[in-house]
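Summary for the lay section of the report: proteins are chains of building blocks that fold into shapes. Here we show the chain for Competence protein and then a coded description of the shape we predicted for it.
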Amino acid sequence: MAQIIEDAIKVQASDIFLMPKREGYLLSYRQIEGLREKERLSLKQGKELINFFKYAAQMDISEHRRPQVGAMTYSFEDAEYYLRFSSLGDFDDQESLVIRVIYKVNQSQYFLPDQLAELKELAKRRGLIISSGPTGSGKTTTMYELAKQIGQGKVVMTIEDPVEIHESSFLQAQVNNEAGIDYVSLLKAALRHRPDILIIGEIRDQGTARLAVDAALSGHLVFATFHAKSTLQTISRLEGLGITNDELANCLTAVSYQRLISSRQGLSCLLDVASKEILQKSISAKTRADFVSWQANLEELRKRGEIDDAAYLDFQAG
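The coded shape description reads as follows.
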């Protein structure tokens, strides 16, 4: 087990896949370049490995059909990595397992640290700050980094499904659908705890969006993640969840889009931030662009030698 995780970390894989095939299991890593096959295993080896991982993540090893989630922290080379597990049985009663590797991204691993400083300054205005991007782009890490920087002496509460990063200075609550504890009920309870900063793991439906907006309109600082294909199209997705333009104009402080990109220093994060006049104009516009300065920043990184031509071309569309 350790070797599989450590090999994934060495190549900066975002996910580890154990997928059943007709005659065995396929172990693969998802890297920046795409899915890479690591090893083929027998059915016996694959099942034993899945059970071992599930046991380590405190999942039910006797249950192979129903979806399960789990989590654990892994230490390697003086660093901690957060692992999130998801298991699922297929139509043939063969179980699959996916392990998300969550990397800590400190301030030195942002291509343009001024962008993080900009979000920190914007957070003083309170309201709703959304971090968007695809799965595995480091959105939660960015929210936590901002909350830690500005949350000294304040109550910071998180609502997540599941908790991805354990932070002792935060009050962290986790969704448990089997016990009837969903995002909406946790959010309602969280607001009664009077947090100074509220982190919502993901806006995923109309109910979550509504409570996030209402919390921001009532004067809270709310950080939330959202799956969107670009910075400004995040606004359109919120509209699709029933949030009006007037509400967005009054509660939305900033929207950022981010990706983790291979650089000469390893894996680094590039942000695209919309705020103030640009954000307000985009909210009221009938048609919207995708980005604020994404392509220009990519071009600058290529000129400086921070990224190569392949990375520049791969991330042009975000």
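Put simply, here is one thing we learned. The chain has a mean pLDDT of 91.
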